[in-house]
Design a protein that fits this description.
Bound molecules: flavin mononucleotide
Mean pLDDT: 96
Strand content: 15-25%
Number of domains: 1
Helix content: 25-40%
Shape: globular
CATH superfamily: Flavodoxin domain
Structural class: alpha/beta
Length: 188
């Protein structure tokens, strides 16, 4: 199973739309996909006590990350970086195991012209710190308000083909790099 993270808690975000677009394309490639949309994060997770003890409502989120074979993160650009909610989500994941050896891939989007290049590169550094296996190809969706059609498809053929290529390549990367799940012996 693959997880697609929609990387903001902003309601009605374009990240949500792009995450679901990625879900549809991955399912068409035969993948089972679970979308984790940060808009649905339980509000009690934001209590300061959560650093020490996670609320029970977070178990399903941690469980999805523990179970999955790979993570695709859809990253919007907020103030030249990725959203604070996305960093908070990563900070709430069990340390250090959650992303160790995890095949990860990134799609950026922004209202502006750079498609969240800075945000994705900054987030890649965070995931790499957590010892994720980063798939090198990324797709950037600039001017996202114009790019997405009414039925939530990408309108620029070049961007759409690039995303297809990335998703296909990522599926193969996941297959080539089976993850040792938390609690599993790498040798077994
Ligand atoms: C707090 C905030 C900061 C933003 N900063 C930037 C930015 O630095 N550059 C940019 O191109 N767009 C910026 N945007 C616009 C987002 O890129 C745009 O809303 C896009 O749709 C992706 O975000 P979304 O998933 O929240 O919709 C910002 C939006 C918000 C809410």
């Amino acid at each position: 199973m693959l997880v697609v993270i929609s990387g903001t808690n902003r309601p009605q975000s374009n990240s949500s739309r792009v995450a679901r677009l990625c879900q549809r394309r991955l399912e068409a490639l035969g993948q089972e996909v679970e979308v984790l949309d940060l808009v649905d994060l339980p509000v009690e997770l934001y209590r300061p006590e959560s650093y020490a003890e996670k609320p029970a409502s977070f178990a399903a989120w941690q469980g999805a990350i523990d179970r999955c074979a790979g993570v695709l993160t859809v990253v919007p650009e907020y103030n030249g970086s990725f959203p604070g909610a996305l960093k908070y989500f990563v900070d709430m994941l069990a340390f250090p195991t959650s992303l160790v050896g995890m095949p990860c891939s990134f799609v950026g989007l922004s209202a502006g012209t750079w498609g969240a290049l800075r945000a994705v590169e900054q987030l890649q550094g965070v995931y790499q710190y957590r010892q994720a296996l980063v798939y090198p190809m990324r797709t950037f969706v600039p001017k996202v308000y114009e790019e997405l059609s009414a039925d939530d498809e990408l309108q620029t053929e070049f961007v759409s083909k690039l995303l297809d290529e990335q998703l296909r390549g990522f599926c193969e990367f996941v297959q080539r790099n089976p993850r040792t799940k938390p609690g599993e012996d790498a040798g077994s």
